[in-house]
Specification:
Aminoglycoside 3'-phosphotransferase, Chain: A, domain 2; five-stranded parallel beta sheet; 3 domains; Phosphorylase Kinase, domain 1; about 50% helix; Rossmann fold; 15 strands; alpha/beta
Length: about 500
C-alpha cells in the first residue's frame, strides 16, 4: 500500500460521520495522521518506508500501533486506550469489527493542547510546581525502564555524532558546524570508557527517546510525557541521562535555565546518578545539534534557518564551557532563604548541569521513601536520622565533585561537625570550598516560615525557635545578610566568590 491508497481512510476519519457528528481536526506529521474529535484522538501511521522506519504494509502499521500503546503506557497509561481497526463493509468504511481491515489507528484520550509544556513555556506559565513533579516522574520511569544495551555494533553515541556532524557541515556549513563535529568527537573519545561502563552497569535502558517540552502535557492534573519513540530501538535504547538531556536543553533554549537546573537536581536526588554529570555537556550538545540538523534540512521554512543556527551555537557552547569543581555550602536557620539562594547561585556557573544543588530537605524525604513535598513525623528529624541525611549528601557530593561539577549543599548546617565534614570533603578532593551562613532578624525568619506552602521543608515556627536557641553559629563561614532579598544575597555571594578566586590566584 502507498499513501494514496490511504486516502479513503483519511476521508473517513476526517468526516463527522466517523465521530458521531463531532467536528474533526486533521494534523499531519511526516510519519502519521492525527485526527482530533470530541474527547478522542486517533493516530494513523502513514504508509511510508524510510531508512529508519517501515510502515509500508497494513501489518507493519498494526504492529507499530501495538508497540506505540506499549511504550507510551509506561508514562501515560490513562491517555493511550488501545488499537482500533477501520473496516470495509458493504463498500463503506466503519469502526465495526466486520469485514476486511482497511487500516489501524491508536485511540487516545484527548488533552487540551494549551496544556502542552512548550505552549505553557511560550506563555510564561511553566513553573517549578510543574517541573519538580515532572522530574520525579521521569526519574521513576527511568529507574523502572527495561535495561537494554545499545544495538549499535560500535557505540550509539558515536553513531549519532557521525551521522549529525556531516549533515551539519553539508546543510549549515561554516566553521561552527565543523567545530561542533570536532569538539563532539573529542569529547566522546574522552568519555568513551565511562559510556561503556554505564552500559555495562545498566544505565542504557528503553527510554522515552523524544523527551522535549512538546511531548509533555498536563493530563488529568499531572505532568505527563507522551509520544515516546516506538519505531526505532536505536533511538530509544539510550543512556538515561541522554534521555533527560533533551528536556534540559529544551528548557535552556527557551530561556528557562532555572527550571532546567531544578529538573536536574530533583531527578538526581531520586536516581543518585551524580557520577554521570560529566556526560551532560556532551549529551545536551548532541540534543541541540540534532535540532539544528532537523531545522536546516532542505525544504524547511526559511524562518527556521535562524533557529537552526541558534541551536548549533548552543550545541557548541555546551562543549566549550570550562567549569572546575568546587564545593559551596549554604547554611542558616529555617526561613533564611537557603534554597532560593542555592537555586540562583547554581545559574552563576554556566549552562545547566555545570552546578547541582543537593537540598537536605529533599534528601531526607528520599531516604524515607516519600515525595519531597510530603510531611514527615518529628521522629524523622532526630539526630540519628539527620546524621544519615548529611552522610548521604556528602556521599552524593563526592560523586558529583569527582564528575567535575560545582556542588551546592543546601542545609541548615546547625552542627559544627556537619560543617567540618563538608570542609574535610573539599580538602580531601582538593577542590575549593566556600561556606556561607545566611542571617536575618528573628521576626523575618518567623514570618517566612509561617507563610511557606508547598515546600519540601517541614520546619515550623516552633522548630525555628529551637534552632535559634541551640545553634552554634559558624565563625569561619562568610555571613550573608538575607533580609534584603535574593538579588542582594546573590550579589554578596558573587563578591565573596570573586574574592576567593583572587586570593587563590
Amino acid at each position: 500500500m502507498n499513501e494514496e491508497e490511504q486516502l479513503p481512510v483519511i476521508e473517513f476519519l476526517t468526516s463527522t460521520r466517523a465521530h458521531g457528528g463531532a467536528p474533526v481536526t486533521h494534523i499531519e506529521t511526516h510519519l502519521s495522521h492525527v485526527f482530533l474529535a470530541g474527547e478522542r484522538a486517533y493516530k494513523m501511521m502513514r504508509a511510508v518506508r524510510y531508512d529508519f522506519v517501515d510502515f509500508s504494509t497494513i501489518e507493519k502499521r498494526r504492529a507499530a500501533c501495538i508497540n506505540e500503546i506499549a511504550v507510551n503506557r509506561r508514562t501515560a497509561p490513562g491517555m493511550y486506550l488501545g488499537v482500533v481497526g477501520i473496516y470495509r463493509r458493504d463498500g463503506r468504511l466503519c469502526w465495526e469489527a466486520e469485514g476486511e481491515p482497511a487500516d489501524w489507528v491508536v485511540e487516545m484520550k484527548r488533552f487540551n493542547a494549551d496544556q502542552q509544556f512548550d505552549r505553557l513555556a511560550a506563555r510564561g506559565l511553566l513553573t517549578p510546581a510543574l517541573i519538580a513533579p515532572l522530574a520525579d516522574r521521569i526519574a521513576e520511569f527511568h529507574q523502572t525502564a527495561e535495561r537494554k544495551p545499545s544495538h549499535s555494533p560500535r557505540d550509539g553515541v558515536r553513531d549519532v555524532i557521525d551521522r549529525i556532524g556531516p549533515d551539519l557541515i553539508k546543510q549549515i556549513g561554516g566553521e561552527p558546524a565543523s567545530r561542533w563535529f570536532r569538539l563532539a568527537s573529542e569529547e566522546h573519545e574522552r568519555r568513551r570508557p565511562l559510556l561503556k561502563a554505564r552500559e555495562r552497569h545498566g544505565w542504557v535502558r528503553h527510554c522515552h527517546g523524544d523527551l522535549h517540552l512538546g511531548n509533555i502535557c498536563i493530563f488529568e492534573g499531572e505532568p505527563t510525557p507522551f509520544d515516546a519513540i516506538e519505531f526505532s530501538e536505536d533511538l530509544a535504547n539510550i543512556d538515561v541521562l541522554y534521555d533527560l538531556a533533551f528536556l534540559l536543553m529544551d528548557l535552556k533554549r527557551r530561556g528557562l535555565p532555572e527550571l532546567a537546573t531544578l529538573a536536574l537536581g530533583r531527578y538526581l536526588s531520586a536516581t543518585r546518578d551524580y557520577s554521570g554529570l560529566v556526560l551532560l555537556p556532551l549529551f545536551q550538545s548532541m540534543r541541540a545539534s540534532v535540532r539544528a540538523m532537523v531545522l536546516s534540512l532542505p525544504g524547511r521554512p526559511d524562518a527556521e534557518w535562524g533557529d537552526a543556527q541558534d541551536y548549533l551555537a548552543l550545541a557548541n557552547a555546551y562543549l566549550a564551557q570550562n567549569v572546575s569543581s568546587r564545593l559551596i555550602c549554604v547554611g542558616g536557620y529555617s526561613g533564611s532563604g537557603k534554597s532560593s539562594l542555592s537555586a540562583g547561585l547554581a545559574l552563576e556557573f554556566g549552562l545547566p548541569g555545570a552546578a547541582v544543588v543537593l537540598q537536605s530537605d529533599v534528601v531526607r524525604k528520599r531516604i524515607h521513601g516519600v515525595s519531597p513535598n510530603a510531611r514527615l513525623p518529628e521522629s524523622a528529624y532526630e539526630k540519628k536520622n539527620s546524621d544519615a541525611v548529611y552522610r548521604r549528601m556528602l556521599r552524593d557530593a563526592h560523586r558529583a565533585l569527582k564528575a567535575g561539577a560545582v556542588v551546592i549543599l543546601d542545609a541548615t548546617f546547625l552542627n559544627p561537625a556537619e560543617r567540618a565534614a563538608a570542609a574535610a570533603l573539599a580538602q580531601k578532593l582538593g577542590v575549593p570550598f566556600d561556606g556561607f551562613w545566611l542571617t536575618a532578624p528573628r521576626e523575618t525568619l518567623l514570618q517566612r516560615v509561617a507563610k511557606r506552602k508547598g515546600d519540601p521543608s517541614d520546619a515550623t515556627t516552633a522548630v525555628l525557635e529551637r534552632q535559634l536557641a541551640a545553634c552554634e553559629e559558624p565563625t569561619d563561614w562568610r555571613k550573608i545578610d538575607a533580609s534584603a532579598g535574593l538579588s542582594a544575597c546573590l550579589a554578596q555571594v558573587r563578591r565573596a566568590l570573586d574574592q576567593h578566586k583572587t586570593n587563590a590566584g
